[in-house]
Design a protein that fits this description.
This is Alpha/beta hydrolase fold-3 domain-containing protein. It comes from Gordonia jinhuaensis. The protein has one domain. It contains five helices and two strands. It has a two-stranded parallel ribbon. The mean pLDDT is 95.
Length: 105
């Protein structure tokens, strides 16, 4: 994970920011956010953090749709070889539907 963190930022100050590490945000800081779609992959090392974030958003009163796609890895919708999997197709369709609703498109 350290290598991945370093690709994102090497600054400890940046890593402490809630915009970089949203789980660091307090419930009060999350309150009032728009409805959220949190998509997690079953075989993702960050799955638990994603699910904890969804839970924290709910605790803040945010409307959350959280889903875990089974048998799939991190960033699955962006991996070319997984583009045509049922999970990728479903996640993209879900994201489009969510954004269309939230943005009133």
């Amino acid at each position: 994970m350290q290598w991945f963190w370093n690709q994102y930022t090497t600054s400890d100050d940046d890593r402490a920011q809630i915009t970089v590490s949203p789980l660091r945000a307090t419930v009060d800081q999350l309150a009032g956010l728009p409805p959220a779609l949190v998509i997690n992959a079953e075989c993702d090392v960050l799955r638990d953090e994603g699910e904890a974030y969804a839970s924290k958003l709910r605790s803040a009163g945010v409307t959350v749709t959280a889903v875990r796609y089974g048998g799939i890895i991190h960033d699955f919708v962006m991996v070319n070889s997984m583009h045509d999997t049922p999970q990728s197709k479903a996640a993209v369709a879900q994201a489009i539907a969510h954004l269309s609703t939230v943005l009133w498109i």
